[in-house]
Amino acid sequence: MIHNVIEQIKEKQKELVHFEYFEKPMAYQKTLKQLTTLNELLDENISVQAYKESLWEANELVQMLFEQIQDAVVEREKNS
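The structure assignment produced for this chain is given below.
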């Protein structure tokens, strides 16, 4: 199911570019609404929510490690 939603999102994104390029505002707005609905459907999926949460946690860990490395480098520079 998730794969199908993702494929539909990709298709709608292509359509949006097409409609914008050929200046078709009504079709653009209709497709934008459909794309918004598909994105909401994807965001509501439990697997997607769990994946986003794990990415958030991983990002926090990377940020913490980066700060520690940065502090160590600054401290080393002070002592040199």
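Interim note for the steering committee: The two ends are 58 Å apart (CA to CA). The chain has two domains: 1-44, 47-80.
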